[in-house]
Amino acid sequence: MKFAFFPGCKIPYYLEHYATATKAVLSALDVELVEIEFNCCGYPIRNLHFESFLLSAARNMALAREQGLDILTPCKCCFGAFKHAEHFLKNEPDLQKAVNASLKEEGLVYQGNVEVKHLLPVLARDIGLETLKARIRRPFEGLRLAAHYGCHALRPSQVTNFDDPLDPTIFEDLIGLTGAESVSWPRRLECCGQPLWGKNDRLSLDLMHHKIDDARQAGADYLCVACTYCQIQFDTVQSADLAERAGGDGLPSILYPQLLGLSMGLAEEPLGLDRNQLDLVGVLDFLK
After folding, report:
1. Domain boundary at 118, 140, 164, which?
2. Residues 138 and 274 reside in one and the same domain
3. Percent share of the chain, pLDDT over 90
4. Which residues contact 130 (CB under 8 A, 6 or more apart)?
5. One domain, residues 20 and 107
6. What is the reported pLDDT for 182?
7. Average pLDDT of the chain?
């Protein structure tokens, strides 16, 4: 199995350990990731200049097409951006024609024949839950996690085709095969607040605190995420907030490939547990 790896813009700068953990897990599962010199997915300019957003996304898919590869991304925001671009380019031929006119200058063409996949469905469906279960070497015991889906992969469901937008199960299934337990918590599908950070910090923190309180009340030991923006919110922003408030009850967030890698018996260094802002050492105590 082979994919073009699309980390997006924020992972290399803010969350390099998300990339290294993803690569470590997929390498152990015999999945090859090819590095291509991609540009931004286009999401940041989607509401500023729509055609430029489409061109950015289409150029990446055209580059992957040249290599004969589909794209795998661990970033749900990038995944959502790509799926939106695919949707518009497929249903509006004039837009696709305009995009290809620009791509032609580089000898590229967008034909809609590259599939963009997020990490979780690749693990759950392409590799398969049973295959993953067979690779577990150190299952967790007694660890309770709040699975946080994020927004961009689930909605709009007719565009992303990720999972049931109202009652998804893919993340809980993936957590369960590691031996950890997913708690039921009412706010699991709500926004983490990260899109508001830097624009309305008070509201962003309120949304985050409501989610953390809800997860804690449900009995979660940690949050578990597979989204760049959500991890920045629950790890980087929460850490800074706790420091500003001189302590308090935080709820650390573990990235899913970190969780899976530990249960597969992989070395801790590439999983980057020490790179998280909030301490994850306690999670090791739940390993058999």
Report:
1. 118
2. yes
3. 98
4. none
5. yes
6. 98
7. 97
Phi–psi pair at 264, nearest 5 degrees: -85, -5
Domain that holds residue 94: 2-118
For residue 152 the two structure tokens come to 């961009």
Rounded Cα gap, residues 160 and 53, in angstroms: 17
For 198, counting Cβ atoms within 10 Å of its Cβ (0-12 exposed, 13-18 middle, 19+ buried), the class is: exposed
For residues 191 and 218, state if they share a domain: yes
3-state helix, strand, coil in the chain (%, to 5): 55, 10, 35
**Class of residue 240 by CB neighbours under 10 A (exposed 0-12, middle 13-18, buried 19+):** exposed
pTM for the full predicted model? 0.97
Record the tokens describing residue 182, joined without a space.
């997913």
CATH assignment of the domain containing 215: 3.40.50.11810
d(CA 28, CA 192): 31
Sign of torsion over alpha carbons 22, 237, 279, 275 = positive
Alpha-carbon distance of 87 to 262, in angstroms, equals: 37
